[in-house]
Amino acid sequence: MLFDQLGLHPKILKSIQDQGFTEPSDIQQKAVPLILEGKDVMASAPTGTGKTAAFVLPALHILTQTEPVEGNGPRVLVLTPTRELAGQVSDNIYQFTKYLRMRSTTIVGGMPYPPQMRALRQSIDFLVATPGRFIDHMEAGRVDFSRVQMLILDEADRMLDMGFVDEVMRIAKEIPAARQTLLFSATLEGQIEKVARALLNEPERIQISGVKIKHDSITQHMLQADDFRHKRKLLDHVLADESLQQAIVFTSTKKGADSLAEKLKDDGHACAALHGDMRQSMRRRVIEQMQRQRIKVLVATDVAARGLDIRTLSHVVNFDLPMQAEDYVHRIGRTGRGGSTGFAYS
């Protein structure tokens, strides 16, 4: 199946082609048609399978086909567990609205209130938010829910793990009952099942096998370093690999990402940093430069470990090892995507 067989708006298809995609992934093939039919969907899929696009693409299409209700506030509300993930969803929306006139904004903690308050007084097509900060605005009476036609819960299991179940239920209660609701999660069992029963209306259930992804297309290497200088030499050796097209180098801190990116630039690499303290516009610029292959080496924190899909990314380097095994899986899953092979070094 090709993307142009999914029935998406021509301008959305043009932006998909610009990203270099021709065939939808399994989760996209199954979820997009159901969402376009207006059905509620609860879905589980492995990392690296294009899950974010599976809800962004049909939501955008639906917005192009429906007349917006007059007033302020969002038409589509996406709730995510962390501001980093919210940023990644926003980046995805930005990439696929290249030829559409859509207004999107992000409401997350750790950012100033006034710009968010101004945004909420406007008509918004896509609003991506973390539950905690969104509840703050909601309790202050700043959120108009009258235009909301779709609610999307992304990585719902993580939201519940972080204790946001009450916030999610409170937010959903304020949204018109006639909405369409989508839930994406690593698992569809336990408490997620209860939340789905409460919020979704006769949902279609999608479960893509292989949630514990094996990364068979990625050759994984472990390198032992004696000290920091030795670690840098090993990194230089990996980056000198002639087969390297583009690489992500992961660090554990934002300061470490900035520092290492500057050193690699001094060594002559086309390099940039990417982390959660950067403005959304700057992060988008870096990702665009990466997609256009103007940047060869991206030094990043875990903000780049989820949602980033660059087909020419051949190498992933864990300069600093992650604290959680799941984060390792997400990091190295940035390479070896869409049937290609990749290399991971730790």
From TrEMBL:
Name recorded for this polypeptide: ATP-dependent RNA helicase SrmB
- The reply on keyword Transmembrane is no
Gene3D superfamilies named among the record's database cross-references: P-loop containing nucleotide triphosphate hydrolases
Q: Which organism is it from?
A: hydrothermal vent metagenome
Residue ranges of every copy of the DEAD-box RNA helicase Q domain listed in the record = 1-29
Q: Which InterPro entries match?
A: DEAD/DEAH_box_helicase_dom (IPR011545), DEAD/DEAH_RhlB (IPR044742), DEAD_box_RNA_helicase (IPR050079), Helicase_ATP-bd (IPR014001), Helicase_C-like (IPR001650), P-loop_NTPase (IPR027417), RNA-helicase_DEAD-box_CS (IPR000629), RNA_helicase_DEAD_Q_motif (IPR014014)
Keywords linked to the UniProt accession: ATP-binding, Helicase, Hydrolase, Nucleotide-binding
Q: Work out whether the entry's keyword set contains Hydrolase.
A: yes
Annotated Helicase ATP-binding domain residues: 32-206
Read off the SUPFAM superfamilies from this record.
Answer: P-loop containing nucleoside triphosphate hydrolases
Q: Where is the signal peptide?
A: none
What Gene Ontology molecular function terms does this protein carry? ATP binding; hydrolase activity; nucleic acid binding; RNA helicase activity
The UniProt record lists the Helicase C-terminal domain at 233-346
Residues folding into a coiled coil are none
Which GO CC terms are listed, alphabetically?
cytosol
